[in-house]
Amino acid sequence: RMRALGNLQESKNFQNKELLRQQEELEARRTRLENNLHELMRNFQFRTNPDREIFKLFNLVLAEISGNGRQINESRLNTLSDALQNHYMFYDATYRSKRELWQATGKGEDSMRRYEDRRAVVDSVRLQVFNLEFNLKRIHEIQEEMAKNKNSH
Questions:
Q1: In a 10 Å sphere around its CB, with 0-12 CB exposed, 13-18 middle and 19+ buried, how is residue 33 labelled?
Q2: Domain span including residue 102
Q3: Of 7, 27, 2, 16, which is closest to residue 138 (Cα–Cα)?
Q4: Which residues fall in a coiled-coil region (predicted)?
Q5: How many independent structural domains does the chain possess?
Q6: What is the pLDDT of residue 70?
Q7: Checking phi first, is residue 49 left (phi over 0); if not, alpha (psi -120 to 50) or beta?
Q8: Alpha-carbon torsion (76, 80, 85, 86), positive or negative
Q9: Running along the chain, 153 residues long, what does each successive block of 10 average in pLDDT?
């Protein structure tokens, strides 16, 4: 029975080490995502003229990222993610209609290219926010699993 308990403990220790390793990887990835987001935001701001609401959300999220303890309000991040998705869909739809017009008439190529560029910028920001969202969720799952392992001795 003692050996079984020892094996169980060893297995838990191994599990926790693995979870810790995963958490460290995720934290490093989170830092990269957050740094990228600052860079992307500058690009986004100048190239796509986002509406004020998205801009406000973005600045709040960036302030939380830079703030002490990096406590991100996840429902705000989620709202930003949804807003960016809608923003992207707008640019995508506009780009498609401009492209059709250009293909039909040969006119409006510059306008089409501008929207194509904006769509790409919004898309990269949207994916980055989505990745950050997913990353934070995974970090919480790992922390919960580690807490569960700790409490089940």
A1: buried
A2: 2-151
A3: 27
A4: 5-43
A5: 1
A6: 67
A7: left
A8: positive
A9: 72 84 88 81 70 80 74 84 90 91 90 88 88 86 85 68
